[in-house]
């Protein structure tokens, strides 16, 4: 454990000792295709907008138009009310995601373990879980609004109910997949319930739990947009887009969508990084 | 006191096991009778499907007899317990832990009241016994098959079981590692003198290790066909016993049992 990260550190240092330009040339297979792909996409977008094929503003106009230019270069402005920079909009959305996702993780792991350990419970509730997880986030919004009457708890509930299923189902599967050998060892050693839980069950099911957590973070982020769009008057990237649509600021919509994609990507990478750190050596 | 002195450690009494199958009940074992003395090294041999594993599972307590019983010190075996520790076929080590942590976890589970210092000492002592003192901090995933089996043996012996149960422990290992491990097992057994029940497919392994070789008849309703005493003096040396003409006599008896008297239909 102690030696391998050191080894990992020393080798990139050696390669970076070479001229960076030669390094770039040598690894052009890695960065050239994505660069060409994204560049090509932007170019086609620019051209179709320029010749009026679509009504979508061109990528370059995001910088030339004043409204979007301010949003790009000043993500931290705050003029009160809903008039805030994209950083604050995203921050508000992420705060809701964090709350809903945390509850989803706690409930999903706890219920998943219970169901995974008790086949009868699993048979009883699995059809229900499979049914509920098919309900789209947007469909939960009216239900949540009826139940909670307020925007904030309703949004958090929508996140929770969208994100909980993959965590629950994967955790239960991970618990079911604990090799019989490990259970037998626990039986021979007459391990206490608590010891079996912390020393065998959790470490053994951890890769499955993380798979669920990773799927869910993406879903939670998708759900917040859905939730906020129908919740007027909330600061958040979802409502920001809806507001822009109603006022016909198409450039702002495009910018908002780019932010959403970028944040989603970062969240997913973050989970992958966490997974490799915690589940190392499994 | 006299009763305990004459009582064998393990007694199989009319032991039978029937498994339910879609085509009706299938008797695996029927009327197995055997007595094992304290400190004996017993090997069990037989064709696959003869219920060797089922037999040992009823000693370890993972499986319950359909008829008859197994008695340990006169008490029927009901469930698994650390007095009958198992070395599993697939090692069954926890791969996210180091070798040391696996052994320590076993000691800590079985004897939670032992002072921590002592637990650590016992763990290291048993890892040293199987030659893994230096590799004790290695993750299980970093170890070879032979080293994993050594950890499994160290873990099993560290909790000082009365009966050590091994289910084909060396089957997956190469010939050289296998012989090394046989010798190590014998050495440790000489110092600890626990009772050993071991399943094997290898007649030479049994002749080198065992005091008695239990030969099983074929299933269904398999039973003990013959119990062959192997009385080479101990400590044993592989070359010495292989020069003994009696070695080939015993070997031929076992081969005759397995390939003539109870030959298996399909090729082994």
Question: Which features would summarize this protein structure in a list?
Answer:
heterodimer; A: 282 residues; mainly alpha; 13 helices; 80% helix; 0% strand; globular; disordered N terminus; B: 268 residues; alpha/beta; six-stranded mixed beta sheet; four-stranded antiparallel beta sheet; 9 helices; 10 strands
Structure in a nutshell:
The complex is a heterodimer of chains A (282) and B (268). Chain A is mainly alpha-helical and 282 residues long. Chain A has 13 helices and no strands.
Structure explained in plain terms:
- The complex is a heterodimer of chains A (282) and B (268).
- With 282 residues, chain A is mainly alpha-helical.
- Chain A has 13 helices and no strands.
- The longest helix of chain A is centred in the C-terminal third of the chain and has 37 residues, at 193-229.
- Helix content of chain B is 38%, strand content 24%.
- Chain B contains 9 helices and 10 strands.
- Chain B has helices at residues 2-6, 52-60, 99-110, 116-129, 145-158, 175-192, 203-209, 238-243, 245-261; strands at 10-21, 24-36, 41-45, 67-72, 75-76, 84-87, 163-167, 195-199, 212-216, 224-229.
- The model of chain B has no long low-confidence stretch (mean pLDDT 90).
- Chains A and B meet through helix 10 and helix 11 of A and strand 6 and helix 3 of B.
């Amino acid at each position: 454990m102690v030696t391998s990260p050191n080894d990992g550190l020393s080798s990139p240092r050696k390669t970076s000792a070479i001229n960076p330009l030669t390094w770039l040339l040598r690894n052009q297979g890695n960065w050239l295709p994505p660069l060409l792909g994204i560049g090509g996409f932007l170019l086609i977008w620019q051209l179709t907008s320029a010749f009026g094929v679509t009504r979508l503003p061109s990528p370059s106009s995001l910088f030339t138009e004043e409204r979007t230019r301010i949003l790009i270069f000043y993500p931290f402005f705050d003029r009160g009310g809903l008039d805030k920079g994209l950083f604050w909009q995203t921050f508000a959305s992420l705060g809701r995601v964090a709350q809903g996702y945390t509850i989803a993780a706690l409930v999903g792991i706890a219920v998943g373990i219970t169901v995974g350990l008790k086949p009868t419970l699993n048979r009883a509730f699995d059809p229900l879980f499979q049914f509920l997880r098919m309900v789209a986030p947007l469909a939960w919004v009216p239900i949540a609004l009826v139940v909670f009457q307020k925007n904030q708890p309703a949004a958090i509930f929508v996140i929770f109910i969208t994100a909980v299923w993959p965590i629950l189902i994967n955790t239960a599967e991970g618990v079911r997949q604990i090799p019989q050998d490990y259970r037998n060892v626990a039986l021979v050693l007459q391990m206490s319930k608590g010891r079996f839980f912390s020393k065998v069950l959790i470490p053994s099911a951890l890769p499955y739990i993380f798979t669920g957590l990773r799927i869910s973070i993406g879903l939670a982020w998708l759900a917040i947009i859905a939730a906020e769009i129908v919740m007027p008057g909330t600061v958040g990237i979802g409502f920001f887009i809806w507001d822009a649509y109603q006022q016909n600021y198409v450039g702002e919509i495009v910018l908002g969508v780019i932010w959403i994609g970028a944040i989603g990507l970062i969240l997913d990478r973050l989970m992958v990084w966490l997974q490799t750190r915690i589940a190392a050596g499994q | 006191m006299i009763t305990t002195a004459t009582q064998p450690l393990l007694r199989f009494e009319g032991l039978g096991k029937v498994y339910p199958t879609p085509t009706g009940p299938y008797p695996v074992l029927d009327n197995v009778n055997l007595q094992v003395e304290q400190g004996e090294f017993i090997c069990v041999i037989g064709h696959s499907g003869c219920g060797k594993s089922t037999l040992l599972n009823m000693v370890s307590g993972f499986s319950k007899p359909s008829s008859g019983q197994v008695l340990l010190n006169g008490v029927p075996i009901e469930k698994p317990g650390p007095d009958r520790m198992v070395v599993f076929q697939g090692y069954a080590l926890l791969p996210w832990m180091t070798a040391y942590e696996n052994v320590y976890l076993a000691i800590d589970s079985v004897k939670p009241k032992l002072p921590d210092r002592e637990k650590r000492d016992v763990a290291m002592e048993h890892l040293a016994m199987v030659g893994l003192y230096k590799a004790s901090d290695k993750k299980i995933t970093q170890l070879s098959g032979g080293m994993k089996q050594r950890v499994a043996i160290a873990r099993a012996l560290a909790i000082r079981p009365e009966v050590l149960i091994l289910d084909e422990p060396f089957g997956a290992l190469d010939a050289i590692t296998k012989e090394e491990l046989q010798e190590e097992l014998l050495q440790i057994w000489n110092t600890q003198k626990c009772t050993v029940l071991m399943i094997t497919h290898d007649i030479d392994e049994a002749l080198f290790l065992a005091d008695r070789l239990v030969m099983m008849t074929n299933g269904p309703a398999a039973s003990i066909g013959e119990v062959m005493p192997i009385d080479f003096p101990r400590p044993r040396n592989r070359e010495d016993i292989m020069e003994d003409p009696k070695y080939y006599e015993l070997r031929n008896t076992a081969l005759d049992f397995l390939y003539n008297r109870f030959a298996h239909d399909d090729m082994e």
